[in-house]
Design a protein that fits this description.
Helix content: 25-40%
Distance between the termini: 65 Å
Largest sheet: 8 strands, antiparallel
Structural class: alpha+beta
Order of helices and strands: HEEEEEEEEH
Length: about 210
């Protein structure tokens, strides 16, 4: 009986791992398709839907005390709900991909957010040029990748390197985020919600048909 239980637990664990890996692979494919869309839709001809992308672009410029000029550059892309419904002349939009680039002094930060068709966060990429999980270690460059299903974390991959001349080394892979890693995940989640709110407010003015 004990041996059968061990086998059953092992099979369940393998099944769960396979499901998570398949979900991660699907997210990566969806992310790849959005990156390809952005790279191939940079034309300026508004009558050419094959090259002219639809998005909201915002740039905020500020002079911050202690760090000087600060620029936030945000792009937001969407999909249409009810696409194919001939009765919908102006179908509602849902935010599906957003990028955010900003600086503090000379430090350049970059973030990407992928949302599913219901608007729930599906993937986060974050680059932090100078970060450490606690004060006992030196600041380093970090890359964060968080994969989610229906808004719940299914995999996190975190890498770091000392500088641009060094390769990244993986320091975490899994779901059991703790301490500073958990806090970082929560911060990115809050940024995603702020972008959704910003997108919805822009929609009320720019797509009020």
């Amino acid at each position: 009986m004990k041996q059968k239980l061990i086998v059953l637990i092992t099979l369940l664990a393998c099944s769960q791992w396979a499901w998570c890996q398949n979900a991660v692979d699907q997210i990566r494919e969806r992310y790849k398709s959005y990156k390809e869309y952005i790279d191939t839709h940079k034309g300026t001809n508004m009558n050419d839907g094959g090259e002219w992308a639809e998005y909201y672009h915002l740039e905020a410029r500020q002079m911050l005390p202690g760090s000087g000029g600060h620029i936030e550059d945000v792009y937001m892309y969407w999909e249409e709900k009810g696409e194919g419904d001939e009765d919908l002349i102006y179908p509602p939009h849902v935010l599906t991909f957003a990028t955010k680039k900003y600086n503090f002094a000379a430090r350049q930060y970059y973030e990407e957010f992928l949302f599913d068709s219901e608007g729930k966060l599906q993937f986060v990429y974050g680059y932090d040029p100078m970060w450490a999980p606690d004060e006992s270690v030196e600041d380093e460059q970090y890359e964060f990748r968080f994969y989610l299903n229906k808004g719940k974390l299914i995999k996190a991959v975190i890498k770091k390197r000392a500088d641009d001349n060094q390769p990244y080394k993986e320091v975490f892979s899994g779901t059991a985020l703790k301490g500073a890693f958990s806090k970082k995940f929560a911060e990115y989640g809050a940024s995603a919600e702020a972008l959704k709110l910003l997108f919805n407010n822009i929609e009320k003015e720019a797509y009020n048909y």
